[in-house]
Design a protein that fits this description.
globular, Farnesyl Diphosphate Synthase, about 450 residues, mainly alpha
Amino acid sequence: MMPPTYDWSWVETQVQRTAGAWRQCSAVLLPHEMLYRPSDQEKREAIYDKAVRTVEREAGKKPGATADRAALQGRLIGVFSEFAATALDLPEEGIELITNDFVALGADFARQARRFDRGLNMGEIFQACRNAWTAGGLQSLLGSRPEITPSVLGYSLLYPYSDNYLDSKKVQSRKKISFNERFRSRLLGEAFAPQGALEGAVWASVGLIEAQYPRTDYPHVYHALLAIHRAQERSVAQLRKSAPASEDELLRISFAKGGASVFADACLATGRIEECDAELAFDWGAALQLGDDLQDVHEDLRRSSQTLFTRAIQSGRALDPLAAQLLNFSEHVADRMRCFPYGTSALKSLLRISWRSIILEAIANATEFFSPAFLDQLEAGSPFRFEFLRSRNRRLARRNGIYAKLFNAILEGPEPPWRSLDHNGESAIHAAPRRRTA
């Protein structure tokens, strides 16, 4: 039996399938699994603030030796464990999963990203790290050990580099088009010198993937990379259209972009992937993309970017039905996660909780676009009051310098197992391809 071909035709088929599931998710909000009284929320908010004060106190210290940094990490993990158990109601298995796996995975990614490109700032590293965490979750769900492989590092960095360039208002459209054309050629395997520092970084990131997954042995990896690139191109082209897109078009663009992105993560987790697992990863990406669109609604309105959410706002509609549909859709995707062959129930439960938390926080930061009745209904199912979440997000933005200092202190450590690439795309990695294991 011939293995499936994950080309653009496959992506379009998945978009139609996932869009059908989206439309079946009622815009009526499902009942909350847990309700919080205002007094319960106030207790959790006090624990939140206590944890933040502890982190900021630690940020004022200057760890020197490796033992000092290890002690600092231990204290911070202890603070987080107490916070997660009492404020977020996470079970012990979920807390251990975050502190033992995802915190370490994130720190390792950040350390390697910093050594790969010293010019990356904390915001860009965190932007890329979100994808690295998704990749780590998929590694577990597909039977591999969660780790920052060369390909995970390279792929996670590709889209902060390219997205931030393509989103910049300072870059002329013709330059963006030229970059995208050259980027596509590089993903197709063409070898040519990069033009400038950005292309050098992007070419080197692709080189990390090529070194781990040779093109002749792992064609699906490159089908996936070309699919996300094509989805990105379609998204950028949509912004240039004078006529507004229909809601169906906007949904297809979002699902193609998000679904192809996480599908690529799944391919990089093992090099090869079964079709049922590919479909699950695609649905995961579609849900995350809509969550990102809701999170970015203020920025997208400023940039005149078209999404389902900005379209509704510009039409004078409240976002209540879309947000309810997104919450229901994320529950649908979380239910499907049980079909992944590996991964613990704690991981699958944590994914469900994290998706809901992302959506609730996005709603809390954009309350002006929702009806008071809808906000009251949702807030009753949140561990924190929405006004509290908004105020703490503003405080976090003002104190980025403090957290950057702490972040840098923790990340000082040994070199990664492979040295950085020079930005001409020359690779020093000769890692054996990873295969799926039980």
